Amino acid sequence: MAELSIESMDHEFNFRKDFDIQETEEWLEALESVIQARGSERVRFLLNRLIQKSFQSGIRLPFTANTSYINTISVDKQPVYPGNRKIERRIKSLIRWNAMAMVVRANKKYPGIGGHISTYASAATLYEVGYNHFFRGKGENFDGDQIYFQGHASPGIYSRAFLEGRLSVKQLEHFRRELEKGGGLSSYPHPWLMPDFWEFPTVSMGIGPISAIYQARFNRYLQDRGLKDTKNQRVWAFLGDGETDEPEALGAIGLAAREKLNNLIFVINCNLQRLDGPVRGNGKIVQELERLFRGAGWNVIKVLWGSDWDTLLANDKTGLLIQRMNEYLDGESQKYIVESGDYVRKTFFGKYPQLLKLVEHLSDEQVWKLRLGGHDPEKVYTAFKTAVDNKAAPTVILARTIKGYGLGEAGEGKNVTHQVKKLNDEELRDFRDRFDIPIPDKKLDEAPFYRPDDKSEEIQYLLEMRKNLGGFVPQRKTISVPITIPSTHVFNEFMKGSDRDVSTTMAFVRMLTTLMKDPIIGKRITPIIPDEARTFGMESLFRQFGIYSRVGQLYDPVDASNFLYYREAKDGQILEEGITEAGSMASFTAAGTAYASHGIDMIPFFIFYSMFGFQRVGDQIWAFGDLRGKGFLIGATAGRTTLMGEGLQHADGHSHLLASTIPNLITYDPAYAYEIAVIIQEGLRRMYKDREDIFYYITVGNENYPQGAMPKGSKEGILKGLYKVNPSVSGDKDWPRAHLFGSGSILRETLRAQEILEKKYKICTDVWSATSYKELRREALAVERWNMLHPAKAPRKSYLTSLLEKEEGVFVASSDYMKMVPDQIARWVPGGLFTLGTDGYGRSDTRESTRRFFEIDAESIVIATLSRLAGQKNITTAKVSKAITDLGINPDKADPLLV
Ligand SMILES: Cc1ncc(C[n+]2csc(CCOP(=O)(O)OP(=O)(O)O)c2C)c(N)n1
Ligand SMILES: [Mg+2]
Questions:
Q1: Alpha-helical runs (H) found in 501-613
Q2: CA geometry: angle at 645 spanning 640 and 646, to 5°?
Q3: Whose CA is nearest to atom 12 of ligand 1?
Q4: CB of 209 closer than 6 A to ligand 1?
Q5: Between the CA of residue 740 and those of 225, 447, 566, 654, 750, what are the distances in Å?
Q6: How far is the CA of 870 from the centre of ligand 1 (A)?
Q7: What is the pLDDT of residues 421-476, one digit of tens each?
Q8: Is the distance from CB of 385 to CB of 130 less than 8 angstroms?
Q9: 98: Cβ contacts below 8 Å, ≥ 6 apart
Q10: What phi, psi does 171 have (nearest 5°)?
Q11: I need a labelling partner for 713 at 20 to 30 A (CA). Which of 35, 165, 363, 734 fits?
């Protein structure tokens, strides 16, 4: 027998091989009588015993995590619908209309401005049942549910807010034209752009679902640590079926089940289509998702068929209708939407002639209109109600819908529907008639917005329902009472420096530990680590602060006798996420936005291998910026040559370049513990006291060296990005002059170069610590721009210009990052800046060897400096040639960028 898929195995098993129908009937009758007499618990028990017995007898049952392609909840388990179906349908129709009109009007006026009609059209019932009966708003004593709306459904969400009286016609008119006078509406959910409205950016697919999972988990963390009562808050995540192909979308579903997050509900809108075409033309996306979620341990609710199908299913005694439902492909299913009722009758029901009888009383139109589950409010309500009542696990609702529902010829179910932005007159008329919108014919071509009077039944009903549920959603509110940040003395010990060799990572960990002990902010600090604590020397935190675990520690840890044992605890403070940077970033997001989503300041520190930060989870970091998140990203084991022996997949030489792309991210590449202390202290002040919507990226290295003492008056320079850390010591005023910029551990190479330059080549050399090229550039650009726009006013001077304008000589920067990083400020440096950096893949080797390889070590800095001086005719070229020989530099070695 050829290998069979799970579905076909199922169906072979059930139907084709039944050579003793009578015996089957007897078993089924017996089962039925147990159901009647003893109930489902007993049935479960007996079936499990039978399976166990079969297994003992060597019988292997086909594995399937699937159930049949029918609704999970049977009709008899359906609760009574609590709302007024008729008014709710009217409201929904109006929302559908205005959502469509927003996109159509915008594109009529500005062709190409974009927007989506078909996504909301398919999801309208899912959202409306939620709005009228489930989504709880932020009330007096309750912070409401956290709802992740599907990004492309935004026109529908705006359209509802319009009916609720929260948005004006003008705002709707300015959908996707935010620069219009009076403002407009952003294309998708962006808290950065609409900070009082949107709470969670979701439009980069996959980010919504993973964020929602970790949000639900973080709510538990707040609860278990006694920081906030979040017991009744639920997290709803709405996503597309196509979106589930994003690794982030399903990558963390195991965690949600393991943590028994019954406060989490996924609603997957299974319209079977994505942008280009079907999600699984040759298969069944719902079944595939069911397998994955059930396998992971979720409560799966399929909402596939509307009430119209209940009678058909009840009338079918052959089992063939379910069989037909099981076997037909998504590609076929999509075709039924664009074909006629006659086609559906012939090909869907007609495949098994017995099934034709089931629909013989229905007209072709009625056959075509047999409604799907996701468009039937009763079925959707049933699923949502079951989900919120579920106590054991997270729930996923797989709701079968039609993409572009109601668009008819304009795109309903068609492959192009995702891109439909315009409707012609006839299509508008059809849409109006189908949803019964009171727009007269003569106005139709304008697709005007329509909102009934405030006193109308519809508006009254909708407002009443929202009032019952605690207020409008979405609504973003921020904290009113900020946390007090600790005073300077917490950081004092780091200002003096140390003779002992210490890495900046070790210094940072010590600082973090001190902060975690602070009586006020200590509890709010959330260290997040993706299985690298030992790499960063953070294992001491395990015992002291505990690793958060909802169940505590149910086993005796293998290292229990050690002082620093692996301690899991219910009130543990550390989020040890395991090997998932994406998951850790999602936790960082939940914590860093708690000030808005929970009204409580949390201070997350996400400490990661710097190479697996920006280039791995960069999009989530971008979303964090959009979210106005607060916190510290710590890129540890940073630098392309500072991390020894690891080589090209580990050695980060570009995270600072990637970090420079995030507008509200403040980045630093500090060399000394005191610099980190100054930066963190300032970060706490700016983010948590002054409430700036910024966050921090700080790189720390694992090279041990004596930590310098903070030079007097250097605070401003540390924060602004550049200060003179070691002026020329033995230099003579008449010697040629040079300035060396160094950052992170490469500052030490710069200091060594200074010594060589002064002692050996009589160059008067100053060394500067460049803590942040990004900060310097940002300020210089702002000043430059101001001067450009204010020609008649006295020009302003940037920090960089004021700092360097009186300095003479050449400027050379050396960095453990790509040359582009220091190059960011080159145009404001007098005479230009010559940069050494780590462009290229590099090698795994020692620090010394890789620094020579990349030409960023002291000797290379010396050559670069002399070469610049020769270029300015301050020294002879012969002197440079001699230095190349003396310092053992091979002038013909391969360019590290290319090898
Ligand atoms: C990461 C990412 N890749 C691509 C896109 C572009 N995109 C927007 S919508 C869409 C199709 C969405 O399909 P589905 O998830 O099924 O949602 P539906 O509109 O069908 O509900 C795509 C590819 C995106 N927004 N994010
Ligand atoms: Mg889809």
A1: 504-516, 540-545, 581-592, 594-597
A2: 65
A3: 274
A4: no
A5: 49, 65, 45, 21, 6
A6: 57
A7: 999 999 999 999 999 999 999 999 999 999 999 999 999 999 999 999 999 999 99
A8: no
A9: 159, 162, 163, 172, 449, 450, 451
A10: -65, -40
A11: 734
Rounded to two decimals, what is the model's pTM? Answer: 0.95
Determine the Cα–Cα distance for residues 344 and 350; give it in Å rounded to an integer.
8
Rg (alpha carbons) of the chain, rounded to whole number: 33
Alpha helices in 648-745 (DSSP H): 655-659, 673-684, 715-720
Structure tokens at 482: 């900020």
> Ligand 1 within 6 A of 241 CB?
yes
SS3 sequence, 576-595?
ECCCCHHHHHHHHHHHHCHH
Probe target for ligand 1 pocket from 190, 275, 617, with the most ligand atoms within 8 Å of CB: 275
Q: 204 CB under 6 A from ligand 1?
A: yes
- How far is residue 456 from each of residues 160, 165, 463, measured CA to CA in Å? 15, 13, 11
DSSP helix/strand/coil, 188 = coil
- 140/895 Cα distance (integer angstroms): 65
CB-neighbour burial class of residue 150 (10 A; exposed 0-12, middle 13-18, buried 19+): buried
Tens digit of each residue's pLDDT (9 = 90 or more) over 411-425: 999 989 899 999 999
Q: Tell me if 656 sits within 8 A of 773, measured CB to CB.
A: yes
Backbone angles phi, psi at 485, to 5 degrees: -95, 150
Dist. CA 358–CA 339, nearest whole Å: 20
Q: Measured between alpha carbons, how far is 341 from 686 in angstroms, rounded to an integer?
A: 64
Distances (CA, A) of 386 to 296, 370, 449, 854: 19, 24, 36, 61
DSSP-based three-state secondary structure for 195: coil
Q: Give the CB-side neighbour count of residue 364, counting CA atoms within 13 A.
A: 10
User: Using one digit for the tens of pLDDT, what is the confidence trace for 184-228?
Assistant: 999 999 999 999 999 999 999 999 999 999 999 999 999 999 999
Distance CA 279, CA 418 (A): 13
Residue 680 phi/psi, 5-degree rounding, is: -65, -40
In degrees to the nearest 10, what's the CA dihedral of 214, 220, 222, 226?
-170
- Angle (nearest 5°) at CA 628 between 626 and 632: 110
